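Private note to self, pasted from the team thread so I don't lose it. Backbone tokens:
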């Protein structure tokens, strides 16, 4: 289940944003902190939405407080039952959110050139 996926759970181009990797219950949790002030928590364990099926749960976080955000264009709650591809796409979309100061993040143009799409 989750512990086996932990070894293989990484995205090379997002590794610089990993703030921590933790064992969580019978699975794992990976915390991301992006330059735009947002972060993400990705979990997979028997108590997470989809964890019993080997799927992932994602939460959008505020980097300063670490609290879950319920008012982003990504979601108004946590996203459960996500495949690894859906996790990757969601992380890219969080990375591409405009910072709270309203400036366009430079990373958006970089990933647009790579063929990624944003919300």
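Design output:
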């Amino acid at each position: 289940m989750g512990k086996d996926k932990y070894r293989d759970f990484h995205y090379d181009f997002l590794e610089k944003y990993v703030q921590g990797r933790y064992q969580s219950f019978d699975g794992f949790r990976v915390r991301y902190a992006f330059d735009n002030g947002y972060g993400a928590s990705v979990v997979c364990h028997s108590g997470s939405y989809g964890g019993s099926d080997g799927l992932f749960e994602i939460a959008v976080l505020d980097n300063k407080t670490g609290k879950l955000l319920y008012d982003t264009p990504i979601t108004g709650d946590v996203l459960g039952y996500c495949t690894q591809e859906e996790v990757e796409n969601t992380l890219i979309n969080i990375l591409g959110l405009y910072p709270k100061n309203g400036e366009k993040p430079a990373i958006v143009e970089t990933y647009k050139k790579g063929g990624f799409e944003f919300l």
